[in-house]
Each structure stands twice: as C-alpha cells, then as structure tokens.
C-alpha cells in the first residue's frame, strides 16, 4: 500500500480542496462486478494497481463522511486526509470472500481515523481517553444541538446505554461545553471570546502587592504635595531657576539663566544652592537632587 499512497499524492486535498473534490468526482464509480474483480486481484495476487483503483474510486465517499464532521471546526482537508488513510487501511484488509461491498467495510476504518484526529485536535486538553469515553464523546456531540444541557433522565439513559457512570456523562458534557482559550491570548474587539480572560491573566503577580501599591501611591501624592508647597515658599526668581534647572524636559544651563536675569553664572549657582536648602528643610533630602 506504500506505492498506492504515492500514486494518489498528486490529488492530495492538502493543497486545494475544491480542485481535489472536482478531480475525484470525475473518477468512475465501480460496479459490484468491477469491485469484486479488483479486490480479488489484490487479495490473491497482491496487485497494487488494483489497490490503487479501489482507493481512487472511493475517495468521494471519504469526502462525504468528512463533511459530516464539519461541526468540530477542524479543516475539512485535514479530515479528508485522515479518512484517506483509513480507506487505504480498509482496502489492504478487505476480504472479497466475505460477500460485502468495500464501502460497507471501509466506513468503519475511515471514521476511526477521523475520530482519532478529532480527539487529538478538537481540544487542547484531551476529552476522551478510554474506549467508553470516546464512544460517549461522539454520541453526545451528535445530540448536542438537540439536547442542550441534558436533564437527569437523559443522562441516566445515555449512561446505561454506554455502560458508564452518570458522573462520566456529566463530565464529558461539561468538557464539550467548555471554551478553549490561548494561555496568553489578548482580547480584540472582533473576537467573540473577548469577554473571557486568558489563563495567564489569572496568575499571581508577586510584584503587585496591593498594600505596597497603595502605600507607594500615598507616599508619592504626599511627596508631590509637599514639593509643590515648598516651591511656593520660594521667591519667583529662585522658583524659576529650580524649575528651569530640574523640572523642565529641556533643562537650562547656568549661563542661559545668567543671561536671563543679567547676573553671573556663579550667582545663579548660589541662588540654586540656597533654594535647594530651603526645599530640603521643607520636604526632606530624599526628594531633592543633590
């Protein structure tokens, strides 16, 4: 079957699904006699060309099954590819002496591969690990739109039918109703899940102690108030010199201020130093640059 796989790679659904579907729709459907003849050639003679024809003639059936699983939100092309693997497995194991058509035998292999793919990819956290849970998953999924949240009688009926405990049915229903969220996703205006917070947003930030933040905010507010009060106690010239030297984005030089007040640069430095001393006395040395 390895060679058979290579022979149908040229019409893989991975590239362009629409073109793929159009291509396989042109492949003739085998009659019962043609199918039996090809199956016997493969079964008794290991004829790989017969295997190729059997696979090609049933590709459209794989697409039909894949479309029934479109509600899981997975790419249809991926489901088709997985189903094709199941089809080839079925062709390899098909026994024409059993008296059934290949499509009846292959449907179980095709669905099995698709089920495995869905369970691996539909949720980040695995929703079904045991055989009973997998059966339960697909039974619940197929009935979900009609049932919504199940009542106690419906849960009991499904649990009895599948041979599992009622709590397992409830757990599976809860998993299916959950929403997958990226660990560090950010909300966007056009995102339907924007009202949900990503898991990373629930992590504790040890650097963000509310008490410490409040204390720091109060200290900053108090310090700013004391600084403004101390600045108001200075004369206009001293206040302007400090503002120009320390509070402006573009700080003035001593010579620029000296030219402004028609004094020497040394005099500006002395005025600045005296103003600093007054501020230190009013608000403390930790707030005043040295």
Please explain how this structure is put together.
By secondary structure, the chain is an all-alpha fold. It folds into 3 domains: 2-121, Four Helix Bundle (Hemerythrin (Met), subunit A), CATH 1.20.120.1810; 131-177; 210-287, Orthogonal Bundle (Arc Repressor Mutant, subunit A). It is 64% helix and 0% strand. The protein has 14 helices and no strands. It has helices spanning 2-7, 17-24, 32-45, 48-57, 59-67, 76-93, 102-121, 131-147, 152-162, 166-177, 210-232, 236-247, 254-261, 265-283. The longest helix has 23 residues, at 210-232. The radius of gyration is 38 Å and the shape is elongated. The termini are far apart. 19% of the residues are buried. GO terms for molecular function: DNA binding; sigma factor activity. This is RNA polymerase sigma factor RpoH. Its main location: cytoplasm. InterPro entries: RNA_pol_sigma-70_dom, RNA_pol_sigma70, RNA_pol_sigma70_r1_2, RNA_pol_sigma70_r2, RNA_pol_sigma70_r4, RNA_pol_sigma_r2, RNA_pol_sigma_r3/r4-like, RNA_pol_sigma_RpoH_proteobac. Residues 254-273 bind DNA.
């Amino acid at each position: 079957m390895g060679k058979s796989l290579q022979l149908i790679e040229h019409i893989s659904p991975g590239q362009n699904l629409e073109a793929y579907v159009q291509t396989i729709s042109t492949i003739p459907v085998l009659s019962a006699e043609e199918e039996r003849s090809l199956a016997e050639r493969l079964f008794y003679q290991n004829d790989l060309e017969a295997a190729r024809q059997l696979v090609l003639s049933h590709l459209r059936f794989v697409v039909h099954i894949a479309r029934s699983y479109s509600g899981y939100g997975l790419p249809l092309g991926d489901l088709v590819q997985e189903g094709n693997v199941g089809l080839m497995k079925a062709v390899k194991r098909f026994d024409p002496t059993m008296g059934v058509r290949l499509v009846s035998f292959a449907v179980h292999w095709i669905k099995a591969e698709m089920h495995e793919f869905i369970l691996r990819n539909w949720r980040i956290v695995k929703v079904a690990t045991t055989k009973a849970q997998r059966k339960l998953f697909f039974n619940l999924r197929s009935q979900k739109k009609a049932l919504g949240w199940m009542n106690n009688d419906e849960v009991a009926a499904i649990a009895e039918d599948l041979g599992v405990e009622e709590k397992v049915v409830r757990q599976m229903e809860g998993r299916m109703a959950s929403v997958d969220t990226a660990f560090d996703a950010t909300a966007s205006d056009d995102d339907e899940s924007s009202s949900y917070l990503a898991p990373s947003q629930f992590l504790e930030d040890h650097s963000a102690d509310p008490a410490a933040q409040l204390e720091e905010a109060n200290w900053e507010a108090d310090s700013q108030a004391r600084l403004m009060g101390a600045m108001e106690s200075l004369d206009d010239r001293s206040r302007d010199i400090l503002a120009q030297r320390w509070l402006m984005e573009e700080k003035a030089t001593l010579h620029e201020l000296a030219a402004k007040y028609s004094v020497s640069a040394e005099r500006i430095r002395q005025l600045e130093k005296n103003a600093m001393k007054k501020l230190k006395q009013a608000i403390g040395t930790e707030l005043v640059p040295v």
